[in-house]
Design goal:
Blueprint lengths: L1 E6 L4 E8 L4 E8 L2 H12 L3 E6 L4 H11 L2 E5 L1 H9 L13 H8 L3 E6 L2 E7 L5 H16 L6 H14 L1 H16 L1
Parallel strand pairs: 1-4, 4-5
Antiparallel strand pairs: 1-2, 2-3, 6-7
Amino acid sequence: MYYCGLDIAMKSSYIYITDSQGRKKTSGEIPTKAGVFRQRLRPYLRHGLRVAIKAGNQTAWIYDLLVDLGAEVTVVNPAKVKLIAESRRKTDKVYRFDTSRKLVSYSGLCPTVRSSGERTEYGSISRKGRSELRAVWVQIAHLVVRDTSRSTARLRRWYSKVASHRGKPDGDSGLSSQAVDDCL
């Protein structure tokens, strides 16, 4: 049995296929065309292929094509897929973050991102992840805003600029992320 995840967009899509042990067999960007899907998926169909695709404007014809090819297809809610991918179940007592970006994400301080094809929009912070940790970073940001020392001057200038253009809440959450970057 093989398993396939498809991220569908208008011009190109992303394919990721694993075997039953979870080992990657192939992945990459492909044109969103019926012939290309047939060609890329054919080698995996004779051993069984389960495909998951997010619901969207291209889903209907791709679903029909995959079912006709013999694949078992599941259409999933994009919001639920995102929640599953971003869920953080605590299985270890110690977390180690190689980059500040990973800690920002774990804290739920990263912006939400909506993208389709070539268009990307950034929204408010995701609020996914550890709320306790996020609260600590926001409190640190509040302390930085009130601090008058030279060591925090750069962060205060950054905060003033963001808060004047986008408002205090965006400034607070943005400064929290900046503080994480400075600490790591």
